[in-house]
Request: fold
Amino acid sequence: MAQEVVNSDEVVLGEEIDHVRLITLNRPRHLNVISSKVVALVHGISMGGGASLMVPMKFSVVTEKTVFATPEASIGFHTDCGFSYILSHLPGHLGEFFALTGARLNGKELVAAGLATHFVPLEKLSDLEKRLISLNSGDENAVKAAIEEFAVEVQLYEESVLNKQSIIDECFSKDTVAEIIKSFEAEATKEGNGWIGPVLKGLKRSSPTGLRITLRSIRKGRKQTLPESLKKEFRLTINILRAIISEDVYEGIRALTIDKDNAPKWNPPSLDHVGDEKIDQVFQPFEEDLELQIPGKEEHRWDGKYENSPYASLKVTD
Reply:
């Protein structure tokens, strides 16, 4: 961490969280809402919470080593950290595609998709960080000019998934996950669509429950505000972790990260066994005092742990 105190209220701060290095310019140390004067320098894998510190920033800088994905559905979870809102607002049905398949984007693709603002070669990233800290200012124009000293234009490779949007829109606009898979299978048989095979394989081995929850969440996100999406994602997270309709998230974690046998046993085992009424349950609003409270002031922050929260005492009902 690099820190220079400007005065008692303002700091220049560099802190790395999940491969995302944040440079905070002329901001109070205690932040309630992330400021537009934060620059994210992203090197390596950026997923989940790390990605949520990259995409919303006024300036987010990526390199040739940056990798972004939202693979949560594959383990029985859902697209969280605000990404049911962010992905749903991408062009066409790219949101459904990335959320359901967990397909990866590299640095150049992130800039092209509008999920990052600048591409800087890795060899120049350290110099950019030093340049930003030396500014000692949060002036937006000054920050932008400094980044553009190091940034380069991006050109997508022909095989980039972003160049496949017509196929993606055709398939991922379907009403259900089953229909999406069927349409994707049909496209996979056509000449020149060899890229679909590996993506389709991953989609088919994902948690049926996770896929169904995620598809509905993305489509709700398209019509929601960001706070509404965050509250919805909070409900989904609590209900999935409480296993009110399935224990897939724990089975997915076991199979992929603990035992690493890559052989999860999903329950229910297939899409046609995941009923609408079950999916409805995880989307049900909580009582008002249990809903996510979006912090606007410091006193609204929750600093306890789950075990001491009202959620720990909730009863699971069949």
Q: What stands out?
A: The chain has one domain: 2-294. Strands lie at 2-5, 11-17, 20-27, 38-42, 45-47, 59-62, 67-69, 105-106, 118-119.
